Description:
Elements: H1 2-21, H2 40-50, H3 54-67, H4 72-84, H5 88-101, H6 106-118, H7 122-135, H8 141-156
Helix pairs in contact: 2-3, 3-4, 4-5, 4-6, 5-6, 6-7, 6-8, 7-8
Amino acid sequence: MKLSLSIFSLLLIFLFSLGLAVADPSSSDYDDDPPKPVNADYQRGYLEVSNSNYQLAIKYLLKAAKTSPDDADVYNLLGFCHRKLDKLEEAFKYYNKALKLNPRHLGANEYIGELYLRTKNLKKAEEHLEVLDDVCFFGCDEFDNLKESIEKYKKSME
């Protein structure tokens, strides 16, 4: 009976770990198929981000934010668009809103970390890397990408 219980426990741990390893598809890679849309405006904004039409994406994402004001993915994409358009203060505003709604949001932590590097704030970027290290128990692209960006930043400062 002890052996069966141990095998059962290991199986439960394995199945549980699989659930933790699945990343939120809206959190990082905009080249993938869009996630299930929050609403039509979010879907259209996501599509425009995928096509690098950031100004147009902002138009749709602002509409999506009105109908889904508690959706961190909407604010993460708004931050992403503003960062790509070099509107850094606005990008910080939207990333912080996403993180207020979901402090463990993969994409928002990665992208705000990259934004902090852009503004020469290595300490804050590393704080977001620590969050990702905690959230991404089995590793994730967002952690790897921010870690690589931090390493490149440090090398450029030598």
